[in-house]
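In this section we walk through a basic example: taking a raw amino acid sequence and producing a predicted 3D structure, encoded as discrete structure tokens. The instruction is simple. Fold the sequence below.
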Amino acid sequence: KTLISWGFAPGNWCKDALASANQAAARRADEAELRQIIDQFAPPPLPPAVALRPLGAVGYHTNIIAENDGDAQNIQSVERHMQELMRVPTIRAGAVMPDACPSGQALGTIPVGGVVAAENAIHPGMHSADICCSMAISIFSRDSKRAPSDVLDAGMKLSHFGGGGRPRDALMPLPDSILESFRKNPFLLRFLDSAVEHFATQGDGNHFFYVGHVRSTGDLTLVTHHGSRKPGAMLYKQGMVIAEALRAKISPETPSHNAWIIADSQVGQDYWSALQLLREWTKASHFAIHDRVANSLGMKVADRFWNEHNFVFQKSDGLFYHAKGATPAWDKFAADSTGLTLIPLNMAQPILITRGKNAPHGLGFAPHGAGRNFSRTAYLRQQAGKTPAQMIAEQTAGIDVRFFSGVPDASELPLAYKDADTVRRQIESFGLAEVVDTIEPAGSIMAGDWQQDAPWRKKKVSRAAAQREAINDSILDAE
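The resulting token sequence is shown next.
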């Protein structure tokens, strides 16, 4: 009660502060000394409350143009979100990539292909739950003498797609150094089991296991696409809770999905460290899959690199660059950067190997892929009357397309995405990156519709059948 009357907010720090202050009070310390003791334990005061900026007060760079009606409608939606997003008081700059598309319904949600720079702030909602979604490539030595189908066969056995982690009898060993780092981080400590179970898994959605050849050399390659899985989703969830508690106090006008953590606070530094550890975990996850496949086939890896496209980066200007589906395109964006990055388009198109141009109008970023002009559901409506088998045959001729679950997911086929040539053309016309080579497609594995036979879906179908039967019975009774 005394601390509250002095203007302090209750918190975990109070226990140690009160113990120390009461010891001093027992030896008759005066109020000035007691306040000094409390100040040693109390967190720094919150910054003054801040309001949203007026609409248009801070502009952003647009690196996308409409080449058809679908593009135009999509860009309008992206611009509505970006205009509102730029009102957030921490944001200093923004940019939109050629693959941009909305990523949520709430106004001001950062779009896919969006980049914003924030001052002393980490916005969990702007890196989203799929933290460190990333690309990794292994180029096999020419003496490997293996066909793409061999690598795809191994991927069907040795990778893992769908919900949840690996079965206990198929767990992949997590490096001890990463495990120990998780134990030392206050955010990640509680996620140790998930870090082990989800290691070397690829999830669902647009994540893939892609096999092809380097155009310039013909070398066989494996490219994987996935993020930090359940550990990342749990960190995101925890980060949003912390950010929301702060937002309610210092910026109630800011929408909840754009809440932030103060970067230079202790919790901000711990969260930043957790992001870096998840990056390390995700990189190891990619290459654990690659190495297991290579070892099973007796192949040697001649070269490899990787890059994230869903992350937060800090540049030398001190700002925190939040990339929601955008590829870093400046030299040494990370200590392990090779200067090359990967930009996929769709399963039937080449993956681009690019070198960034650090374009100021892109805030130093390039696209992360092809993006979508419409939702999965809208795309499937366009394909009404066609079976998944027909759609696969029409859109992936000559490509060995596989679905890990055994059930195709037609919403991930090439026509569900923006035109690949358009995106590539705009990468070059806006000067965001230089395409130095490509990986020509041979085949790809994706999760497929792994939920088709899920218990919850079976129950839903069963309930619907029971309802239809009840209606039919009532009609017969009436007759």
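Looking at the output, two observations stand out. The longest strand covers residues 301-314. Residues 344 and 365 are 15 Å apart (CA to CA). In the next section we compare this with other chains.
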